[in-house]
Amino acid sequence: MPKDAPVDPRGPRFSAWMTTVVLAIVLLTGWWRLLAAQTVLFAMCAFISLKLNPWGHVYRFAVQPRLTPTTEREEAAPLRFAQGVGFVFALIGTLGYATGLTALGTVATSLALVAALLNAAFGLCLGCEVYLLLRRYAPALARPQ
Amino acid sequence: MTGVWALLGALAVAGAIGVLLKAREGRISRNESVDLPAPVRDLLAPGVTLVQLSTTFCAPCRHAKVILSDLADRTDGLTHAELDVTNLPDVAAALGVMRTPTTLALTDDGTEVLRVGGVPKRDTLLAALQPHLR
């Protein structure tokens, strides 16, 4: 798996706000194709490269030039872990909505939204909070990459 | 309509968890000393050692490392050591550590003085450690 370079930590926060908005639209409309697109996006970021995240490009071209530069950098591994967790919930949500199990779709999407909003608003590091728990209770899901 | 309630519920839950986590960040607690796993025992130095448990997937671990190594450099009898438990889940479990960064302050005989969850607050931590520093 290719390794991403460390990133400006404000980029992922911006991206998390955008993800929160997308997931909120899915909850309000039940539009499963939008959730499917978000699932693909999570998968590309988690399993291929963070560079494939379009919100990252929007941040670099439209937001970053307006902000004071920072030398602070964040490692890519925690971000990709979080995208992987988002992928699992979004996938379950998509399958739920698409197969008529709307309750499952709603619950999974809500959980993904909670995680995205915690990241956006509070800078929550999902990998810090759940990695050791996953290793303990679901070892197969949390093999280091 | 369900979607609206789900969205409101998600916003409320995220707010509650966020406030709770912020309140817990850097909080100092005292636990019973346990039998230290070998990788931790190997790190103990004379005086008090701050053993910081980290994982690859932990962004704030880097901030914690900067704060703790600086604190250790400026304080006599205090050493900082980082242990990556990404591939040592048993070590984390034996110590009852569920999240990273978690920092354990251990004396040279392996007694746990205190532990800090999240990124430590420098001054609060130093004040709590003071009675144990020679």
Automatic annotation (TrEMBL), chain A:
InterPro entries: DUF4395. Pfam families: DUF4395. Residues 7-136 form the DUF4395 domain. The chain crosses the membrane at residues 14-34, 84-105, 111-134. Keywords: Membrane, Transmembrane, Transmembrane helix. This is Uncharacterized protein DUF4395.
UniProtKB/TrEMBL annotation, chain B:
The keyword Isomerase applies. The keyword Isomerase applies. It holds the Pfam family Thioredoxin. Residues 10-134 form the Thioredoxin domain. InterPro entries: Thioredoxin-like_sf, Thioredoxin_domain. GO terms for molecular function: isomerase activity. Keywords: Isomerase. This is Thiol-disulfide isomerase/thioredoxin.
